[in-house]
Amino acid sequence: MYSIPLSRPSYLPYIDEILQVTEKVLRSGNIAQGTVVAEFEQRIADYAGTKYGIAVSSGTAGLFLCLKACGVGQGDEVITTPFSFIASSNVIVHAGAKPVFVDVDRETYNMEYRNISDYLASHDHNIKAILPVDCFGSPVDTNKMRFRYENGYYKWDDTKIIIDSCESFGSKFDRPFDAAVYAFYPNKQLTTGEGGIVVTNSKDIAEYCRAMRNQGRKEGDKWLDSSFVGWNFRMTDLQAAIGLIQLNHWDEIRNKRRYNALQYTIELGELYFAGKVRWQEQTNDDICPFVFTVEVDNRDKVMQYMLSHGIEVKPYFPCIHLQKPYREMGYREGMFPIAEEIASRTLALPFWSDISEEEIIEVCRVLKEAL
Predict the structure, then answer these.
(1) 174-197 per-position pLDDT tens digit
(2) Which of 197, 276, 302, 340 is most exposed by smallest CB count within 10 Å?
(3) 360 contacts: CB under 8 Å, gap ≥ 6
(4) Which stretch of DSSP H or E encloses residue 129?
């Protein structure tokens, strides 16, 4: 056990309320997908500013459904980032398509739109969609991703944009997309244990996801009749009830996370200006952080020192293209040098909504010793 863990779930300060609502759901006898899920979906869609919200069993399930809803399948290609949790690429493979990696921006860690344009202009391809990732909670700017540079000018491209927003619930950014997916794993800004939600303004995408998460049963089908061959990607009312309590306290949770990130930047400011640490540049001023990471020299040695002193830290992320399944597809070192450099240097520090100032100060003290 570590004296300061890497993460703790956001619901803990509201545990008495959580126990009350989950008991209510249990006593109702309706513990699977029901009216509580429907309320949760509407609250999330309203917060995201979209017409539709479709609750699913995980963020991974949501991304997969979105790809399928947009017609991605065998022989297609999907542009995405190599610097992410592996799920964002696995869903592309599961859909029958090929992930096409492009390098990231050195400052924001998000996929660089110029690299997308360069790939489209210089390769024969069958790109069906772009799947950018909001790295560490900082929203990727998709405003320029639908413009393709071709023959000396930019032209509008109708390629589908599906945003992996699994790390960025609570971050606000006005940008175009066909669908985005939030995830609610225990270390996320809002958690339901497992689960996710697709948000979209597309009726077609929403109807597809609603039917296919529920064994292909669309609205109007008779009981146990299915119009399609679907999956079981449903969320339960128990999970949704946990999420709704956090939404009731959302401003408090969001403000705490923003404040805690600010405390880290203050405590580490001297090291930052001395060039001993650096961190991700935010894409805008209205984000809700997922984690707080720093880049350091000799990352693995620094990590081992901090672990030995009771501070749980972890490397975030190993590059996807260098993991075994993707090496077998032909990817190798040196193909995406910026992502590879960031991956070799980045360390996630303890971070959650209710981490104390004293704990942040102790983490920074041990980091300074390690450096």
Answers:
(1) 999 999 999 999 999 999 999 999
(2) 276
(3) 260, 263, 264, 267, 350
(4) strand 127-131
